[in-house]
Amino acid sequence: MSDEKEAPQKKTIKIEVKMDEEMVQGAYANMARIFHNQTEFVLDALFLPPQSREAHVRCRVVLSPVHAKFLHAALGRNLKIYEDKFGPIKAAVSGGNDPGSILH
């Protein structure tokens, strides 16, 4: 017997993900709007057509704070993987907008 404690094993849960044809096509978004209160985060994916001042909500996702934290971590990991493979992403948006000002 060893005095060392065994590292906890990670469990993998396999799930089947199904999408209807409309969802498979996806929806392009070039802006996002985020709201939150004590119990949830709301993420609106928006499309602002060129030469327009009216953005259209393409998708709304409502998350618990815990799931918002998981999403944040997953996006960070995937951005790192992307940049390791393809190089740094330039954060400057044409027109001089600060990307941080898009996310409220």
What does this structure look like?
The structure is a single chain. This protein has a three-stranded antiparallel beta sheet with strand order 1-2-3. 30% of the residues lie in helices and 20% in strands. It has a domain at 27-89. The longest helix has 22 residues, at 65-86. With 104 residues, the protein is α+β, with helices and mostly antiparallel strands. The radius of gyration is 19 Å and the shape is extended. The protein has three helices and three strands; from the N terminus they run H-E-E-E-H-H. The chain has helices at residues 21-25, 65-86, 99-102, and strands at residues 31-36, 41-47, 56-63.
Question: What are its keywords?
Answer:
extended, three-stranded antiparallel beta sheet, 104 residues
Strands, helices and their partners?
Blueprint: H1 21-25, E1 31-36, E2 41-47, E3 56-63, H2 65-86, H3 99-102
Antiparallel strand pairs: 1-2, 2-3
